[in-house]
Each structure stands twice: as C-alpha cells, then as structure tokens.
Amino acid sequence: ISVTDLVEESYNRIEEVDEEVQAFITLNKEAAKKQAAELDQERGNDDAKLFGLPIGVKDNIVTKGLRTTAGSQILSNLDDPLYDATVVNKLNDAKSVTIGKLNMDEFAMGSSNENSSYAAARNPWNTDYVPGGSSGGSAAAVAAGEVPYSLGSDTGGSIRQPAAYCGVVGLKPTYGRVSRFGLIAFASSLDQIGPITRSVEDNAFLLETIAGHDKMDSTSANVEVPKYTESLTGDVKGMKIGVPKEYLSEGVSEEVKEAVKAALKEYEKMGATWEEVSLPHSKYALSTYYLISSSEASANLARFDGVRYGKRAEDAKNMLDMFMRSRAEGFGDEVKRRIMLGTFALSSGYYDAYYKKAQQVRTLIKNDFEKVFEDYDVIIGPTTPTPAFKVGDKVDDPMTMYANDILTIPVNLAGVPGISIPCGFSGDGLPIGLQIIGKHFDEGTVYRAAHAFE
Ligand code: GLN
C-alpha cells in the first residue's frame, strides 16, 4: 500500500463518518496529499519511524500554517500559525502525515466535548452518547477508524477519560516527559500531551517519538527516553498491584466495578498479585484541581485580549471596551466560569485560603501516591465511574460534569503517568476503561502491565 492510498483511505473514512462523529475541526487535505505523493517518491530509502502514517492532532497543539483554534471562537481566525509545537516537529521528523486538527472542549475545559465552540463530537459506538473530553475528537477519530493515531492533551483526565469512553488506548505521560512547547496552555503545572491509539504497542511507539527533553520548555525533564516498545514482554509475573479502595467506592457503577474486578482476576492468572491500598486524600482532589487549574487558566488566558492574541471585537468605543468585548465574544461560558473562579482564588486576601491551601493539599495527594509506590509497581482502578453518558445529560450541571473526572484528576496532581485501556463493555454496549497508574517516569511498567492484559 502506498502512502497516497493510506492518506486517501483516511480522508475517505472521514468523508463517510465525520458528518456524524464531528471529530475534526480543520482538515489538512491538500497539504497531506502533496506530502503523501512526496513520501511515495522516497519510499524504500527511508526508515523514519512513522513514515507515511496518518495522524490527527488535537486542536490546542500549534501547527505551522494549519489553523489552530483550541476549540475557541477567540482563535477562529488563527489560520496561519507561525511555528510548530515541539511534538509536531518530532512527528514531522518521523515523517507522519498530519490529516487534520481534532475537536475538543474549548481550551481543553470539559469532559464531554460539548464545550467545543464548533460542534460537539459524538461517540462512534453510539452517537447519542458523548465521546468524553476534552480530547473527544482525538479519541473518537481513532475509534471511528478515521486515523490510526492521534495526539491529545490531559490536564485532569482529558486523554484517559475519552479513551475509556471510546474504547481506545490513551496515555497521560509523567509531567515533564513530553514538551509542552506549542501546546496552548490551560493549566501549566498539570498539562501533558500524550498519544491515543488502538493498541498499547502503537501507543508505546508513538510516545517514543514525541517524548524527550526540550530546551524550549523549562519544565520538560532531562531524563532519557527508554525504548518503551521493549517493555512489552507480556510478562507480569510477580508484579505488585495496588488497588485503591477509594477507586471502587460508591459513585462507581456496578458494571464498572465488575469489569475492573474481572481484569484483576486476569492479572492474578498471569502471576501478578493485588492488594487493597488507600489514597486517603483523594476526596480533596476535585476541589484542589479546580482551584489550581482555574487559577493557572485565568493567568494563561489573559493574553487573549484581541491585541496580543485572539480575534478582535469590531466597533469598539475605546481600548478597554475592545478588550472586554473581544473576550466577551470570544470565550464561551465554561471558559468564563473558570477565569472568574481563578481570578477570585488568586485575588489578594483570598490567596492563602484558596490557592496556597490547594497547593498544600496537592502535596498530600502526591505523597499518597509515593507511599503506595514504595510497595507496589502499579496502581489499578477504573478510569471513570461510569461509561459514557448521553449528549445533553450533564451540560447544565457543571458540578456533576466535574465529578466525572474524580478518578483521573489525582494522577495529574501527583504528576505520575496513567493509561486507560479497554476492559469490557456495559450492558448498553459502551466501552469501559481500565486505568493503570505508574511511578514518575515509569511509563515502561505501565505499558508492560497494559500490554499483558490487552
Ligand atoms: N474535565 C477536566 C476539566 O474540565 C479535565 C480537562 C482536561 O484534562 N483538559 O478541567
């Protein structure tokens, strides 16, 4: 098969299903076809790692010359970005073909894709249901067979939760493992880019390509990138698994509990052992996360003022009016809610009570994980309390929407890696996700555990 055929097949599939699935915001058709023809010329004398493979990129990752909106109207006119994100440079060096930019909740704030200002992407298993978010387009595109690989970003679950809902494999790497240069920031101390794929092997392969130190991102870690594909031995004999009791408590549906317990039985059969452990500060994770992430978002989003970045409102009376109208018109409701919450939490007089307190609790949450990892190799539990919910079900209730990320958020606060892999189906035929969490920079063991189960 030629690269041209492969790329053609991707666009044909998009043509077929994307009117319904709405996974893409922008397609890169002309440039991708041209690149495919060029790659076909070089074929045979090039061993680039992702040679000719079609990939989709979440729309908060900057792509030179290709529209990048972050799901927001305020960036709807960013048609011609001036540079590529570091991960995109790495994809280009590996000679993959960027098929298009994937749908997402605006500025990655959301759990259902319904906060996209373009269209709400749908779950390919049943389009009455949400694909999850915020990387809903990234997970849906892979699940629907539009692209074999995609990139998402995860601040509080935005790779793992949609991967779980769409029955695909999604990894949030250790904080600092992958460069954030060129990722439009939501919450800088939590954001990580990661791969979404159909198999664990593909996932490990893609992480090898995008990971590594980058001098353009001061928080990227100078830690060598192992060959993750070499850890896929199939052997988990003697592996010690911790199962947090907080992850199988009320709020988690019976079907999800059953699926996770069945997975643990499989691990036992393969020679691993598991025991109940505790992450006692998990109950504070949601409030801690919403304080920290909204505070950071309020600062990060200050640059969208119609001058430095963002679409400028027309007919403004004066400069202040221009700033205010550009932001009022350009941002959606959820983004405004977070900016207000974050601005409040950071204001003088409240800083100690909210932001500082949240940072202290964050340390306790991180310590919980480190304590468990003194005795266990991985932590396993569900990715989400329930399978995907129906479109429209939670859209008017931000608190229940937020609660959906209760099992993924602690992982971001601790900075450790976590993967979601499929582990069965609900009675309604919707996928259920198994979450495997590892030690800092130990994606290798996470992949080994995931691959053995798959
Ligand atoms: N759903 C969470 C939020 O809305 C997480 C989003 C994310 O990981 N980007 O903040």
TrEMBL record:
Q: What is the top EC class of this enzyme, as a single word?
A: ligase
According to its UniProt entry, this protein's organism is Halobacillus aidingensis
Does the keyword rRNA-binding belong to this entry?
A: no
Give the function comment from the record.
Answer: Allows the formation of correctly charged Gln-tRNA(Gln) through the transamidation of misacylated Glu-tRNA(Gln) in organisms which lack glutaminyl-tRNA synthetase. The reaction takes place in the presence of glutamine and ATP through an activated gamma-phospho-Glu-tRNA(Gln).
Xref: InterPro entries: Amidase, Amidase_CS, Amidase_dom, AS_sf, GatA
Q: What is its EC number?
A: 6.3.5.7
Describe the protein's quaternary organization and the partners it interacts with.
Answer: Heterotrimer of A, B and C subunits.
**PANTHER family attached here?**
GLUTAMYL-TRNA(GLN) AMIDOTRANSFERASE SUBUNIT A, TRANSAMIDASE
**Domain Amidase residue range list:** 5-446
Q: Name one GO molecular function term.
A: transferase activity
Q: Know the name of this protein?
A: Glutamyl-tRNA(Gln) amidotransferase subunit A
Q: Which gene encodes it?
A: gatA
Reactions catalysed: L-glutamyl-tRNA(Gln) + L-glutamine + ATP + H2O = L-glutaminyl-tRNA(Gln) + L-glutamate + ADP + phosphate + H(+)
